[in-house]
Here is the input.
Amino acid sequence: MPKSPAAAVTTGPASSGSRLARAGLPAVIVLVVSVMIIPLPTSLLDLLIVANISTAVLILLVATNVTRVLDFSSFPSLLLVVTLVRIALNVSTSRSVLSRGEAGGVIHAFGSFVVGGNIVVGMVIFMIVTLVQFVVISSGSGRVAEVSARFTLDAMPGKQMAIDADLNAGILTEAEAKRRRREVAEEADFYGAMDGASKFVKGDAIAGLVITLVNLVGGLIVGVVQQGMSIGEAGRRFSLLTIGDGLVAQIPALMVSIAAGLIVTRSTGGHDLGTDVFGQFARQGNAVRSGGVVVALMGL
Here is the structure.
């Protein structure tokens, strides 16, 4: 039976979009591996760094707007991809810093803005950002993902039995029962994958810290031995670039780590995170008023 024109119009772009998505992600992964090997111009590095930061912002926004974890079920695999992209960019920028003494306008701007004429302050800020990501967010997210995976797997047989009981009682149809069984299995797979994917975040934080320390020491050696700079000049130049390089890697990593924490701690509330939080605060008017009185007394 021939397809109607409306059906052809509907399925055409969707199929072409799916083909583009199937080809696009493997191409990105291959390109990422190539970035680790092939030296890139600074203009292209700037473009890739901005794209990496924009992707991290998008992931964080999606994580705050999902109503349930299965709405973002591709997050564990996406977490591996963005971690690989970030490490590849870090390797490429490190090559540019050590070989040419520059790494593009974005890294220079980050380093100049954060350092602000004081290298010690810039290094302390970088260490604080890294420690917050590694010690607080990554460790907490990994623990929550581990516990969630364990409890989800333990509760899986009971959920399956409840679905079978509803099906036998006629509350659910066969199609609804299949859909709910599939959701239960997907939820267990998701938390199991997140338990492993959280290790990527922690390993990424460690790798970023090690790469930054190597860049700092290697920059001093390159500047003094190969480029004939004084120790102070080499320290100022390569410290600025190293801190900028570390920040453009750690800030997206921090946002992705926060997104991972929001995903694994998300409970099904039927709304996005902002709606749930403000709605629950609005229902606790006495607590809000009491808090306002306490703050007013502290101000006095």
